[in-house]
User: What shape does this take?
Amino acid sequence: MLRIAVPVVLSNATVPILGAVDTGVVGQMGLAAPIGAVGIGAIILSAFYWVFGFLRMGTVGLTAQADGQGDQREVAAMLTRALMIGLGAGVVIIALQGLLFWAAFMVSPASPQVEELARQYMALRVWSAPAAIALYGITGWLIAQERTRAVLVLQLWMNGLNILLDLWFVLGLGWGVQGVAFATVIAEWSGLALGLWFCRAAFWLPAWRDPVQVFDRIRWVRMMGVNTDILIRSLLLEAIFVSFMFFGAGQGDVTLAANQVLLQFLMIASYALDGFAFSAEALVGKSTGARDPQRLRRAALLASGWGMAAAGLLALVFAVAGGAIVDTMTTSDPVRAAARIYLPYLVGVPVLACAAFMLDGIFVGATRSRDMRNMMAVSFGVYALCVAVLLPVLGNHGLWLAMLISFVARAITLALRYPALERAAA
Assistant: This one.
């Protein structure tokens, strides 16, 4: 379990470091517009790519199950299908970039200078869209086979190269915003090449290019069904976070800023717990493929036990050092004071959200995507009801309570479906 989880946790830790360097190098230009342009451009493109995040989760479950069945032909064919979807989606984004960028700036307008620089940034960076989305599939395929060390090396390579190129292109050559974009393009395409090298064993089997195996209609229908359910589930989850920020904005600028700072605690918790959730995905997937419910239960219990231990440690860190962490994130005294008021909710987040994270991993591995979709819909309804009842009475306290209750609701509803998952595996 730790062999799978620890590399994922370390891999996730590199993500915020890259974002900080991207911001830092353009910040050396001494102007506000480039910082805003890189920030908004990265957010817009990440949002487009995120739509295809289902590719990682769907690939993990289906590949792990094929591996558990000993069907190496299907394991190789799954990689081909994932690459086809990822590369194809990236090409579509490139083809529609004008329309997509226009729509993004209609929803989130910026000053003319920031928008112009952001468009320059995105016009370059969008050319790595096929690589960035295909990497979701490669990552899922590697995790399914418990090869998370390869995932760690892949992330270290991409983010390390990106940082070095950032420093060279922006500070050395003076390319500005375009330099940041160009660095990311090179890093992501080189990451795809490295990822394919890690997956080279699949290309030793003729099945990866066998049209009968790759284009099998039943397997495609199943893969698209799983991915569609996960996409709907992810959109509902994103709706919770987007509406949380929207309702927080109605509480005033200081409260909005405090919520944004505190959400970083939630991101830290999710990055840490993801390692054990990914372990559950791989091990539960193999157990499901092997039709071994006892092994599945053992994997679920191990992942949950380690996840709860990590959650308890995170809660302790947040309780002891939460104030200091807030102070490093903002120098605004009003924001610091507001964040400390709501900090106790974040101390409870790792413990209350842990079960939802672990069950997500278990259900992904078992490809019980319909249950994930339906239970997420129920949890979203619970969250909406709590917001409607608690926000007018308790203000931002009610908003945080609604968020915590949504995690608990997701855990309870998925737990109620767990017995059916074991029966299906048997």
Q: What stands out?
A: The chain has 16 helices and no strands. The CA atoms of residues 186 and 289 lie 38 Å apart. Residues 229-426 form one domain. The chain has a mean pLDDT of 89.
